[in-house]
Specification:
Elements lengths: L1 H6 L20 H20 L4 H23 L2 H35 L5 H5 L15 H32 L2 H15 L3 H15 L6 H25 L3 H9 L4 H12 L1 H16 L3 H6 L18 H11 L2 H32 L6
Helix pairs in contact: 2-3, 3-4, 4-15, 6-9, 6-12, 6-14, 7-9, 8-9, 9-12, 10-11, 12-15, 14-15
C-alpha cells in the first residue's frame, strides 16, 4: 500500500498566467516628460498664462498623472504606485533645482556687467551712489574680517560643546545645554544684533566696529556648529572608541586622535554651513557695524562695510549703476562662499584618516 502511494505521480497545478509581466521600455519616463512639458506649454499658451511657473506646475502634474495611467495599463496598479512615488521625487528635485539655477544664471549674467579687476580693488570713496564707478573692496575686506573673527569665536566653542554633549554629557547640565542650543537655533539675527548692541555698545560704551558685528554673527553660528558636530560625532562607531580605550589610551586622547579625525569631514561641512548662513546676514551688520564707503582694515575700531550691507545699500539707491553694483556684489558674495566651501572640503579630505590598505 505504501509503495502504491509512493509510485503515484504528483500532479502540479498549472500556472494561471505568465510568470513575467509586461514592462514599459526604459525610454518611457523621458517620453512622458517631454510630452508633459509640451502639453503644459501648449496649455499655457492657449490659456494666456504669462507665468512660466504655471506652465511648469501643469507639466509636472501631467507627468505624474500620465505616468500613473500608462504604468497601470501596462504593468499594473502596484508597479504604478512605485513609479508615481519615483516621479514625485524627481518632480520635487526639479522644482527645487530650477529656481536655484535660474537665480544663479541671473546673478552671473547681471553681475558680470560690472565685475572686473577695478571693481574688486576699489572702494566707493569719492563716488556718489547715483554715479557709475566705484568698487566693492571695502565691503569684501569687511566681510572677510567679520566672518573670520566670528568663525574663530564660534567654531571652537561649538566644537567643544558638541564633544561635551556626546562624550561626557550626562545629567541636568547636558539637558540644559541642549535646551539652550535648540533655543539659539531659532533666534532671529536681529535679536543677536540687539543683544550685542545692548551689552557691548550701550552698557560697555564701545562704538560701532566689525568686531561687534562678528560677535553677533558668532551667536548665530554657534548652534549650527554644535548641532552638526554633535550628529557627526554620534556617527563614529563606538568600536573605535572601545579599541582605543582597551589599548590604554586616555579618553581625551582618544577623542583627539580617533573620534575627531574620523568625523572631520562632517564637522567641516557643518562649519561651512554655519559660515554660509552668517555670511549673508545684514541686520547685525546694519546695527553694529553701520557701514562706510571708506576702507577700514581695523575690525576693532570704526565703522566697516560688508557685502550683504553693500548689496542692500546699492539696491536701495535704485539707479542703473547702483543696481549693477548690487548684482556684482551679490556675485562676489556667492563666489566667496563657494571658495570657502572648496577650501574646507580640501582640508577635510587632506586631514581625514586614510582608508584601505
Amino acid at each position: 500500500m505504501s509503495h502504491a502511494v509512493q509510485d503515484r505521480p504528483v500532479a502540479f497545478a498549472k500556472p494561471r498566467g505568465p510568470l513575467s509581466h509586461a514592462r514599459l521600455p526604459r525610454w518611457t519616463p523621458i517620453a512622458v516628460a517631454v510630452g508633459s512639458i509640451a502639453a503644459g506649454v501648449s496649455l499655457g499658451l492657449a490659456a494666456g498664462w504669462h507665468s512660466k511657473v504655471q506652465w511648469g506646475l501643469v507639466s509636472a502634474l501631467l507627468f505624474v498623472l500620465v505616468t500613473y495611467a500608462v504604468t497601470t495599463k501596462v504593468e499594473g496598479s502596484r508597479q504604478a504606485k512605485d513609479r508615481v512615488a519615483t516621479s514625485l521625487v524627481w518632480v520635487c528635485f526639479v522644482l527645487a533645482v530650477v529656481p536655484l539655477l535660474s537665480l544663479g544664471w541671473v546673478t552671473v549674467s547681471k553681475g558680470m556687467e560690472v565685475l572686473d579687476g577695478y571693481f574688486l580693488t576699489h572702494s566707493m570713496n569719492g563716488v556718489l551712489d547715483v554715479e557709475a564707478g566705484g568698487g566693492v573692496y571695502h565691503a569684501l575686506l569687511g566681510t572677510i574680517e567679520q566672518v573670520g573673527i566670528a568663525t574663530l569665536i564660534a567654531a571652537p566653542i561649538g566644537l567643544l560643546t558638541a564633544v561635551y554633549l556626546v562624550e561626557y554629557g550626562t545629567g541636568k547640565l547636558a539637558k540644559a545645554v541642549t535646551f539652550f542650543v535648540d533655543v539659539m537655533t531659532g533666534i532671529p539675527s536681529i535679536v543677536a544684533g540687539l543683544f550685542i548692541l545692548a551689552t557691548w555698545n550701550l552698557m560697555l560704551g564701545f562704538g560701532p566696529s566689525g568686531f561687534a558685528g562678528a560677535m553677533a554673527l558668532a551667536i548665530l553660528m554657534m548652534p549650527v556648529v554644535v548641532r552638526s558636530t554633535e550628529e557627526m560625532l554620534k556617527l563614529v562607531p563606538n568600536e573605535l572608541r572601545e579599541a582605543s580605550l582597551a589599548l590604554g589610551v586616555p579618553k581625551w586622547r582618544t577623542i583627539l586622535k580617533v573620534v575627531l579625525p574620523t568625523a572631520i569631514g562632517g564637522i567641516t561641512t557643518g562649519v561651512m554651513l554655519a559660515v554660509a548662513r552668517i555670511t549673508g546676514e545684514t541686520a547685525p551688520v546694519l546695527l553694529l557695524v553701520f557701514g562706510t564707503k571708506l576702507i577700514n582694515p581695523n575690525p576693532f575700531e570704526g565703522a566697516q562695510s560688508s557685502l550683504p550691507l553693500y548689496v542692500y545699500e546699492q539696491y536701495a539707491v535704485g539707479t542703473d549703476a547702483a543696481v549693477a553694483r548690487a548684482w556684482a556684489a551679490a556675485l562676489v558674495l556667492i563666489a566667496f562662499v563657494m571658495i570657502l566651501n572648496l577650501v574646507a572640503r580640501g582640508i577635510a579630505r587632506w586631514k581625514a584618516p586614510k582608508t584601505g590598505r
